[in-house]
TrEMBL record:
InterPro entries: MgtE_N_sf. Residues 85-97 have a biased composition (Basic and acidic residues). Residues 48-63, 72-83 have a biased composition (Low complexity). Residues 38-107, 240-262 are annotated as: Disordered. This is Flagellar protein FlbB. Residues 116-174 form a coiled coil.
């Protein structure tokens, strides 16, 4: 009996829906039809929750105007979109979440980039260090070249000084040899008289270059005091000057040591 009472209500609701659809087509507002669908759903659900009289009352109630139907349609669409979004949000979030492999690869990529950056910085430091070492090496080579040039100049100067000294010594030796030859050609008495008045350093030098035989004759004619001083001067020499100058080496000390002083 209850189903039989609902059937007329459903027929009435369908008829009202057709009427609203026709009115909407005539007026040019198709939302009237969309707005009637929630009302129809409410009318269909109402008999199950309430009595037949309440459903009949809702089915025969006046339909809302166009603005209310549009708002209702927009609300329904919004609720449907929100429900769809709520259903798709976990899946989208799960899809957007990176996988374990992507996280591992991303971590390795960041580590590799950090290592490459560190290696690049280290390479720059090594290149700067290499340039600094090259600069120091070039400066050291330049300093060594200047030092070698300076050493060469000093050696050249030393060679010139040695040559000048050798030349001067040769000249001095030549002059002294001439003096010695002159005294050797003199008579021993005349040479002794001159030696008695000369400085002892000059007399010892000339006497060391004279032949031992000729010097013995001159020494015999000299004053005893001067002869004694000359003997001490000649014996105090550390080296044998006669052997170095080409004279009769070893004879003069023997004469000095054996000849008595009167």
């Amino acid at each position: 009996m209850k189903d039989l009472r609902l059937l007329p209500l459903v027929i009435i609701a369908v008829g009202a829906l057709l009427v609203l659809k026709g009115v909407g087509l005539i007026v040019g507002e198709p939302n009237l039809v969309g707005g009637s669908r929630p009302a129809l759903a409410q009318d269909s659900a109402a008999p199950q929750d309430g009595g037949a009289q309440e459903t009949a009352g809702q089915g025969e109630a006046p339909q809302p105007d166009g603005q209310d139907q549009t708002s209702a349609q927009a609300g329904a669409d919004g609720q449907k979109a929100a429900a769809t979004t709520e259903r798709k949000t976990p899946e989208a979030a799960k899809a957007d979440e990176p996988s374990f492999l992507e996280r591992v690869l991303g971590s390795e990529s960041r580590s590799r980039e950090a290592i490459l950056d560190s290696l690049g910085e280290r390479r720059q430091e090594l290149e700067a260090r290499e340039k600094e070492l090259d600069l120091r090496e070039n400066l050291l080579k330049a300093a060594e070249q200047r030092l070698e040039q300076r050493i060469a100049e000093l050696k050249d100067l030393e060679a010139r000084i040695t040559a000048v000294e050798a030349e001067r010594k040769g000249e001095d030796d030549e002059r002294m040899k001439n003096v010695v030859t002159m005294y050797e050609s003199m008579k021993p008495k005349d040479a002794a008289r001159i030696f008695n008045r000369l400085d002892m350093s000059v007399v010892s030098k000339v006497a060391s270059l004279m032949s031992a035989r000729q010097m013995a004759l001159v020494l015999a004619e000299m004053d005893s005091e001067v002869a004694q001083r000359l003997t001490l001067e000649l014996s105090a020499k550390s080296a044998d000057p006669i052997a170095d100058t080409g004279g009769a080496g070893g004879e003069l000390p023997k004469i000095v040591g054996t000849r008595p002083v009167n």
